[in-house]
Amino acid sequence: MKESYIYILSNKNHTVLYIGVTSNLKDRIQQHKNGTGSIFTKKYNIVMLMYFETFTNINEAIKREKQLKKWNKKWKWELIQSINPQLKDLYQDLIH
Questions:
Q1: CATH of the domain at 74
Q2: In the prediction, which pLDDT does 28 show?
Q3: CA 61 vs CA 22, 66, 71, 78, 96: distances in Å
Q4: Distance between alpha carbon 43 and the CA centroid of its chain, in Å?
Q5: Under a CB-based contact definition with an 8 Å cutoff, are residues 55 and 61 in contact?
Q6: Pairing of β 17-22 and β 4-10
Q7: Coil, helix or strand at residue 21
Q8: CA count, 13 A, side-chain hemisphere, 73
Q9: Are the C-beta atoms of 14 and 76 separated by less than 8 Å?
Q10: CB-based contact 85:50 (threshold 8 Å)
Q11: Model-level pTM greater than 0.85?
Q12: Mean pLDDT over all residues of the chain?
C-alpha cells in the first residue's frame, strides 16, 4: 500500500501554520519551498516542515488532516513540540 502523510508547515517566525495531506511528502514540501505548493503558503512564506504523520490509507490521512484543521493553534503547537521541541525544519531530515 502507498503511504500518505499529513504535514504541518510554518513560516520562519512561527506565526502561521498550514496543514496539508500528500502521498509524496518530500516532493510536496519541495513544491512549497519553491513557491508552487499553494497560493497561501507562497503568500505567507510558509516553508518549514514542523510536523508530519505517516498513514497507510489516504482516507485516514484525510480524516486526520480535517481533525487537525479544527484544532486551536495552541493544541497544534503542543503537538508539533511533542516531536519537534527545537522547532527545526524537518525537511532536512527527509532529504538525508
A1: 3.40.1440
A2: 97
A3: 8, 9, 16, 20, 24
A4: 16
A5: yes
A6: antiparallel
A7: strand
A8: 6
A9: no
A10: no
A11: yes
A12: 96
Domain range for 78 is 4-95
The amino acid at 81: Q
Sign of CA dihedral 11, 13, 18, 20: positive
Helix, coil or strand: residue 48: strand
Mean pLDDT of 12-27: 97
Q: Which residues contact 20 (CB under 8 A, 6 or more apart)?
A: 6, 7, 9, 28, 37, 38, 65
- Total number of domains constituting the chain: 1
Residues 29-67: pLDDT tens digits? 999 999 999 999 999 999 999 999 999 999 999 999 999
Q: Residue 18: helix, strand or coil by DSSP?
A: strand
Rounded to whole angstroms, how far apart are CA atoms 78 and 74?
6
Q: How far is CA 67 from the centre of its chain?
A: 14
Asked if 64 and 6 touch (Cβ cutoff 8 Å), the reply is yes
